[in-house]
Structure formats: C-alpha cells, structure tokens
Design a protein that fits this description.
By secondary structure, this protein is an alpha/beta fold. The protein contains seven helices and eleven strands. Bound molecules: S-adenosyl-L-homocysteine. S-adenosyl-L-homocysteine (SAH) binds next to helix 7.
Length: about 230
C-alpha cells in the first residue's frame, strides 16, 4: 500500500477509506495480519493490522524491510492524449520502467495541458500495482522546443518517428551507448515536418521506427519501451 507519509517503527495510523475497504473487504485481512507499505521515499515497510472498525483499519508500522531502490533512469516524454487514453498510457509507462514522466506540448497536440494531480494519482496506482517502491516523478508540461533547448546532452533522446524509412528499431537502439535515456512519442496527429526535421538534426537524438504500421500513441509507447527494455534495458 502507498502511504505518502513519514513512516517509523511503532507508528499507528488509520488507513484511508479506500485502502481500509481493500484490506478488510477485498483481502479480508484480520487483526495481526501483516501488510507492506511504501511511501516512495525510504523503501518498503512491514506493518500489522492493529484494529478494524466500521470506518477504518488501523495499522501499526513494524520496520523497514527493503530500502528504496533507485528509479529507472528513463524519462518518458509524451504528447498528452485524451484523458482516458492518457490514464492508460501513464500506467503502461510506469509498468514498463519510466522513472520520470514529462508531458510535452507539440504543434499537433490536440488536448489541453493534462491535470498533473490526475497523472500523479495514475503513477501511484501503477507503482502499487507493479510492485515498485519508488513513485515516478511527473513533471509540468513543457513545449517541445523549450524542452530540447534545455536538454541534458548526456541523456540520449529516443524519438519514435512514424515516418522513419526503416521498420526495425533494434539496430538504432543497439547503437545507443548512453545509460541515461529518454523516449519521445508524439500526439495522435503525429509530429509536424518542422518538428521531425528539428529532432533529426539534434546530436543527442536517435530516431527509431516501430514497425511498418501506424500505431496509436499509447501502443507506440509500450512498443518503444519494450524495445528499449529488450536492448538497453534497466
Ligand atoms: N501521424 C500519424 C499518427 C501518429 S501516431 C497520423 O496522423 O495518423 C502517434 C505517435 O506514435 C507518433 O507521433 C510516433 O511518435 C508514434 N508512432 C506511431 N507509429 C509509429 C511507427 N510505425 N514508427 C515510429 N513511431 C510511431
């Protein structure tokens, strides 16, 4: 369970309504049962159910089980999509190893800036689900040009280019030597010609194809992250 507070042995607190329901009625845990907590800062803590009441489950923190692992050093840059698909895309990115989520506003981005609180809630849910102890960082949306102008040159930016001339991403990915990585996926409307030209001209950018078909942006994200995991990996 994700608990966004400082934890220490002996601390007792009431779980939130949703989490209490999950513990008492979904997992049907009784007093004394042990659960694992993480706060995205110092790692994984064991805790026991101290008491159950109508309104909440009371937890008692036992001790630190596992220190907080580092976040994967992959920055996932994405043009925001319509909310439902955005929720999906953010969860997949976290499951597939993104450590930082960077919304990017491009020329053809059709949606308003995404609600950062909702993105963060999706990230926490995905982190809980895939059992990572860290909570990936969600940054404020940035315009593509500004993001590239301030880019950390030691970080390789892998750009999914639907107009690439080849179809297999692996050769380009295998040529990447940097450990610090970022991935950029465009909006439903794709990148503009100017954006594509600008990206291809940058020394820290590697353009990759993702097969011969046009993928939806959220499909492209998973396909690219899987290809990266298969070659460079974390
Ligand atoms: N331009 C297309 C759709 C863009 S798909 C159109 O207008 O229909 C959204 C994003 O997914 C693209 O910007 C690109 O980053 C990625 N993408 C989709 N298919 C891809 C492919 N075959 N190769 C590389 N990237 C792809």
């Amino acid at each position: 369970l994700f608990v966004p507070d400082d934890l220490e042995p002996g601390l007792e607190f009431d779980a939130g309504q949703q989490q209490s329901h999950y513990l008492a009625h979904v997992l049907r845990l009784g007093e004394g049962a042990e659960v694992l907590l993480f706060n995205g800062r110092d790692g994984e803590w064991s805790a026991a159910i101290a008491a159950k009441s109508k309104k909440a489950v009371r937890l008692k923190v036992l001790d630190l089980q596992r220190p907080q692992p580092p976040l994967p050093d992959l920055v996932y840059c994405f043009a925001p999509l319509k909310q439902g698909r955005l929720d999906y895309l953010v969860q997949k990115a976290v499951e597939m190893g993104a450590g930082v989520l960077q919304p990017v506003i491009t020329q053809h981005t059709q949606v308003a800036k995404p609600g950062i609180e909702r993105l963060r809630a999706n990230v926490v849910e995905a982190a809980e689900q895939c059992g990572i102890l860290a909570v990936p960082e969600v940054r404020e949306a940035e315009k593509l040009e500004r993001l590239l102008a301030n880019w950390d040159k030691e970080r390789r930016l892998i750009f999914c280019d639907e107009d690439a001339s080849t179809t297999n991403p692996l050769p380009a990915l295998q040529a990447v030597s940097e450990k610090k990585l970022a991935l950029l996926v465009g909006p439903e409307g794709g990148f503009s010609e100017d954006e594509r030209k600008m990206l291809r001209a940058l020394p820290f950018v590697t353009a990759i194809p993702l097969g011969p078909r046009i993928l939806r942006a959220d499909t492209a994200a998973v396909a690219a992250l899987a290809a990266i995991q298969a070659t460079i990996g974390d």
